[in-house]
Amino acid sequence: MFRFAHTEYLYALGLIPVIILCYVLMRLWQTRTLKKLGEVSVIKSLYDDASHGKSVIKLILFSLAYICIVVALANPQFGSKLEEVKRKGVDIIVALDVSNSMLCEDIRPSRLERAKQALSRLLDKLQNDRIGIIVFAGEAYVQLPITTDYGAAKLFLPGIEPDMIPTQGTAIGSAIDMAVKSFTGNDKRNKALIIITDGENHEDNAVEAVKNAAENGIITYTIGMGSPDGGPIPVYHNGVQVDFKKDQSGTTVITKLDEAMLREIAANGKGEFVRATNSDDGLSLILDKVNKIDKKEFGSKVYTEYEDKFQYFLAAGLIILIFEFFISTKRSEWLRRLNLFGENKK
Predict the structure, then answer these.
(1) Class for domain 85-300, per CATH?
(2) Do the Cβ atoms of 309 and 256 come closer than 8 Å?
C-alpha cells in the first residue's frame, strides 16, 4: 500500500515546465543578442570553451533534484503491515422524514434543513459505529446502506429533498419496516433506529411496526421536528416561495408536531422521545443514549502502519544538486584536446 502523506506539495511539480520554458527563452535571448553583435559562428569561436551540452545536462540534473525534493516533501509512505482491527460499535439507522410538511419553517431554517444539519453533526461525532440512512414520505427508501464511511454519508445529505419521493404522505411504519430489513446480522442487540419526523403519520400503523422492531432487538428513538402550534407549508417554484399549501377548500394547511404519536412510538420501541427546538436539535441527547447500548465487535482490514520513505528522495535530490553544482558550463580541456569533430584550429 502506497500513499503520500502530504499530497499538496506535489502541485509544486507544475513548476518543472516553467523551469524548462525559462531555459529555452534564455537560450533564445542569448542567440538574438549574439546576432545583434555580429555573425554568431564567429562570436562563438571567440569563446569556444563554452559548452551548450553541459548547460542542458545541468538543467536536467537540476530538474531531477527538484523533483526528488518535492517528492520528499510530500513524504511517500508504504504500508508495512496489513492487520485486521477489531472495532466495537453500534449499528445505527436514521429514518428521515422528507414529506412536504417538513418544509414548514416553525423551526429555522426549516424542519428538513434543521434535521439535515443535525444529521451532519451526528456524523462528525461518530467513531466506530456504522450508520445507514432511510428517507420516507408516502413510501420508504434506503438512501445509504449501513456503512462506516461517514464521508460518503455526508455526500448524500444535500440531495435529500421532498421531491426525491414521488408519493407524498408520512409512512413512519414503512420506514420502520425498511429499517428492520436493512440491519445486518441475526443478533438481536446493538441496533438503534433514530426517526426524525414531525410525527404526522397518515399511512400505516407505526406502533405495530415499532413493536416488531423491538422484538428484533432494535431500540427506537424519535426526534420531533416542529412545534405543537405548527405552521404553514411553503410552496416553492424555481426556488422562490410563491404561496402556502392549501386544502381543497382553499384554506391554508397548518402542520403541527404530533408529539403524542412520537412518544408512543418511542415507548413501544424501548427508546426515548426528544423534541427539537430552535436552540437544540435533540440529537446530542439521543447519541448519549445510543452510546450506552452494548457494542458489538466487527473487524475491518486496514493498513495500520506506514513507513516514511522521504529520506531516500531527499538524499538523492541533495546528491544530484551537489553533482550539478560542480559541473562547469565550460568545455573540459581533455575534450578539447580530443578534437572529436576534427576541427582545424589556427
Answers:
(1) alpha beta
(2) no
